[in-house]
Design a protein that fits this description.
- The protein is 39% helix and 19% strand.
- By secondary structure, the chain is α/β, with parallel strands linked by helices.
- The protein is built from 12 helices and 9 strands.
- The longest helix is centred in the first third of the chain and has 13 residues.
- The strands form 2 sheets. A 6-stranded parallel beta sheet has the order 2-1-3-4-8-9, with helices on both faces. A 3-stranded antiparallel beta sheet has the order 5-6-7.
- Helix 5 links the parallel strand 3 and strand 4.
- The chain is globular, with a radius of gyration of 19 Å.
- The protein starts with a helix and ends with a helix.
Length: 254
């Protein structure tokens, strides 16, 4: 090969697009939890993109486990090829049900998340062990059609939800929070995909929403392939430690 042809080949190799690079990797579908939105994954997405992954940060409606899971299942069905399905907080309840019957879901990743068994609810698991103070800072908004939306009182949000995030950022998150229905938090799970799909778990030792003891229990029950406890991390470990969350997602993608 001549020097000019060799140089052309090297340039062509360097010009491969991220999409082409990601063709041999599973697509990562991220599902946010209650009181948050897809932007909570921004730091994780940046790292996954850097490492050549295609990422979809799905919008979780936060209305009910059944309807939210159906919405996420539709996103998963639209992906050609394998999927790593990732859920934060209540998003864990959603992916646990959404993955059922989806043959392209190769692994589940629970990020400070619920991984309920059939018949269990997020609210029930949150109260299974001591440590959650979420109930004391929630404020309801009655809905015209019945039921209630739940928000965290804004001035309580930083300490409750994001104690290891800069205060200015946490205050903005408090104003932007998306509510979840009371019904969704109390709705019983009807499927438990972690029973037959391998799972990975990561959570913070200072989580005030879901007691770390509860997440330890769920990870052990699911026979987690890898469990990472981030010392001092709050409920939004994917914001305060995006590198660690991206790492476990990539482990699940192998």
């Amino acid at each position: 090969m001549t020097r000019s042809l060799l140089r052309a080949a090297m340039v062509a190799a360097l010009a491969v697009s991220p999409a082409a690079f990601a063709a041999d990797k599973p697509t990562v579908v991220l599902v946010h939890g209650a009181l948050a939105d897809a932007s909570s994954w921004s730091g994780v997405i940046e790292q996954l993109h850097k490492d050549g992954y295609t990422v979809i940060a799905a919008a979780n409606p936060l209305r009910s486990v059944k309807t939210d899971a159906a919405s996420i299942a539709d996103v998963v069905k639209s992906v050609k090829g394998p999927v790593v399905l990732v859920g934060h907080s209540y998003g864990g309840s959603v992916i646990t049900e959404a993955a059922e019957g989806q043959s392209n879901v190769k692994s589940l990743v629970y990020v400070a998340a619920f991984s309920p068994d059939v018949g269990e609810s997020a609210a029930g698991l949150s109260g299974k062990f001591p440590g959650s103070t979420l109930g004391s800072v929630l404020t309801p908004v009655p809905l015209t059609g019945g039921g209630k939306d739940l928000y965290v009182i804004q001035d309580k949000f930083p300490e409750q939800f994001a104690a290891d995030v800069p205060k200015k950022q946490a205050t903005i998150m408090a104003a932007e929070q998306r509510p979840i229905t009371e019904e969704a938090l109390n709705e019983a799970e009807t499927a438990a995909a972690w029973k037959h799909i391998p799972s990975w778990h990561i959570y913070g030792s200072k989580d005030k929403n879901i007691p770390p003891a509860s997440m330890k229990f769920m990870a052990e029950r699911a026979k987690s392939k890898e469990t990472v406890v981030v010392e001092g991390a709050s409920h939004v470990v994917m914001i305060s430690h995006p590198d660690k969350v991206a790492k476990i997602i990539e482990d699940a993608a192998k």
